[in-house]
């Protein structure tokens, strides 16, 4: 499959840690086997909910754009998430290969797919939750481990959907349970972002959640986030990385602080 100019540019940029998170002193070796002098990089493999967005898409914001705000300078973020990808199509396009060529011992590979794996009518993306979906996710897990990196699985962040009684409704079917089961079998840290996000949407309610999704004068998008939504989900990710002991307290920051929307920026394509 041929890549567009933006896709090529995105892949090239994603292979380099974001400057906002990549500064600071070099770290010594860690219990995870990070070499002396190597800044640990957290690689993100995922879909549009996490991906870098550009000026023509603003205010749409991927949570991966906000994650560096919650990590200390000793950690870098390389966001390889791309719009529209499933666990299958990401691999078929060679995107996992790009990550595995760059990842180093002690790095982290955070994997969140599911939104597009459910596209039954699209054989380039569709996976079945309890068979092919888990099979593809294992390739991320095995690839990271083979290179001395640590895989981390995340359930898909929930869409904004409510029933007639104002209850937040799940939209991902068996995909989150399949990730949970795989994480348990493989002994992989699990960030249950689906459960956390649907709980937050329930707490916020029908109207307040509109302030977290990409609702504009011309669009009512219940899947993708604006800056407040991306920041909220990134905060969940950072807190879960800490809770699951993927990172130490010294590796995170601002988990209880207000993050200004003005910190989000959208580069030109």
Q: Layout of SSEs?
A:
Blueprint: H1 5-14, H2 19-22, E1 40-46, H3 63-66, E2 75-79, H4 87-92, H5 95-102, E3 108-112, H6 129-146, E4 150-154, H7 175-186, E5 189-191, H8 193-208, E6 213-215, E7 220-225, H9 227-243
Parallel strand pairs: 1-2, 1-3, 3-4, 4-5
Antiparallel strand pairs: 6-7
Helix pairs in contact: 6-7
What would you say this structure looks like, in words?
The chain has 269 residues and is an alpha/beta fold. 35% of the residues lie in helices and 13% in strands. The protein is built from 9 helices and 7 strands. A 5-stranded parallel sheet has the order 2-1-3-4-5, sandwiched between helices. A two-stranded antiparallel sheet has the order 6-7. A hairpin with a 4-residue loop joins strand 6 (213-215) and strand 7 (220-225). Helix 6 packs across helix 7. The longest helix has 18 residues, at 129-146. The model is unreliable at 1-36 (pLDDT under 50).
In summary, what is this structure?
The chain has nine helices and seven strands; from the N terminus they run H-H-E-H-E-H-H-E-H-E-H-E-H-E-E-H. The chain is an alpha/beta fold and 269 residues long.
Which structural class should the secondary elements be placed in?
Answer: alpha/beta
Mean pLDDT: 89
- Percent of residues in β-strands: 5-15%
* Distance between the first and last residues' Cα: 21 Å
Count of discrete alpha- or pi-helical segments spanning 4 or more residues: 9
Q: Quick one: how many beta strands?
A: 7
Q: Roughly how many Å is the radius of gyration?
A: 17 Å
Strand order of the main beta sheet, please?
Answer: 2-1-3-4-5
Taken from the alpha-carbon principal axes, the silhouette is globular
Instruction: Sketch the major β-sheet.
Output: 5 strands, parallel
- N-to-C SSE series? HHEHEHHEHEHEHEEH
Low-confidence stretches: 1-36
Share of residues in helices? 25-40%
